Amino acid sequence: MRRALAQVLFALGLPAVLFAVWWVASDTSTQVYSPPLRTILAAFGDVWTGERISADVLPSILRLLAGFSVAAVLGVAAGIVIGSYRRVRAATEPVLEFLRAVPPPVLVPVIMLFAGIGDTMKIFVIASGCVWPVLLNTVEGVRAVDPVLSETARAYGLRGGVRLRHLLLRSASPQIFTGLRQAVSIGIILMVISEMFAASNGLGFAIVQFQRGFAIPEMWSGILLLGLLGFLLSVLLQLVERRALAWYHGLRASRRQP
Q1: Over the stretch 147-196, which tens digit does the pLDDT of each residue have?
Q2: Which end of the chain is more exposed for a tag (fewer CB within 10 A), N or C?
Q3: Mean residue pLDDT across the chain
Q4: Mean local confidence (pLDDT), 238-258
Q5: Which pTM does this prediction carry?
Q6: Which CATH topology does 56-253 take?
């Protein structure tokens, strides 16, 4: 209990210090585009009410989760196939390197041509960027499977779903979760970008509307809410990871002991 409390306090220490510095440094600010933090926090309470959350925040979260889920499924599935077969990896590597180098925001106009301007477009945009860290980390995780374990599984006749579940996914799961953590931050960025194009709701839409209406404290409150959303999603994913990879963290802890 004490260790968990110490970890929480350590994690919240730096944000608390940064907020204190921001509060003091901006307290006497009279600039329109950088208002005091107390003004932003006052606007935060006024803007992000239950009605605004249901109208803008929840649709953004649902799009983010949908795009993230699509990217996770496609990235893990394709990563297992590419990482397991050398010929498939050699054939797909040039194409993957080309597609990986294309910035996802550039694809927004192209995706709009095929998927329209609704939620489908926004989900595709999010998935198009989130899939790469999941895919690449899965490939590397599958390639790094212990050859001894692989040969042992082959000797015992482990095939198909049993081999996939107990060997490949289990061995690659630490790197898969690394890719998922990276995908969350990318997904939030692409969520905001996609909602700046032909949208009628969402966090990105609301922030742009505040900016265009010169409601600067309200705009900053939306940015602050995005940061809090990213932090909460990261913490949630870490909790899932610790539960799913309890065996892995326990193994690492035992190896560190003298």
Answers
A1: 877 777 777 777 777 777 778 888 889 999 999 999 999 999 999 998 88
A2: C
A3: 85
A4: 74
A5: 0.87
A6: MetI-like fold (1.10.3720)
Check residue 253 and give its pLDDT.
64
